[in-house]
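Service request form, structural biology core

Requester: graduate student, group of Dr. S.
Request type: structure prediction, single chain
Budget code: on file
Notes: please return the result as structure tokens.

Sequence provided:
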Amino acid sequence: EKSVYIYDQLVEKAKYNIGGYKELCENLYGQYFYEDFLTFGKEEVFVDAGAFHGEDTIKFAKALGGAENLKRSYLFEPDEVNYGECAKELYKFFSINQLDFDNGMAECEKFTLLRSGLYDKPGRSSFASYSESSAISKVYGVENGGGISLVRLDDVIPEWEKVTYIKMDIEGSEIPALEGARNIITKHKPKLAICSYHMLDDLWNIPMKIHEICPDYKFYIRCHTPVLYDKVLYAVMD
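Core staff response, request fulfilled:
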């Protein structure tokens, strides 16, 4: 019922261009891990799409009680500077000796970090690098910036790995990235936390895409800031 109310209010605000979400905001800046409808076990395999500096993987490990309780995290951060900072923070948190991460991948027992974007097909794309809001260029309607690799989540996660939770905050590429994770979502039915504010029609197109892939999900939506950002659609199994 709370989600129905929040959703109606978000649509109303979008329709009439009303700013400010303070009255809808709960769990301020506490997205992804602390809602009462989310349950976690001891074998969590996390996909951190839009990893930035790795803070969400680190928060998740802490929420589970410590680094030893996170089975594994697969992180995707195409921005070169953010990728380097992310690797350093992960090495520090997981107490890993400094490894080489200049080849576009950093890996150890607890995580795999790729300097790639998620999409519905592999390839390359021009890239607009704006630090915290870097994105595949065509999302912003431009074609400038350096090139990045694009991968499908279905192609890079080993078949034997059971993904339990997927978080996406990838600046408007969420829908093609979900399509690229179709097999994982259909097979494993992981919990999903998908940012739904980058494009106006994300409010309805993202839940419709998830429902089309797997109609068994139950949806929740929450606002985690009093401004435009961090509107998250959660999808969990009953």
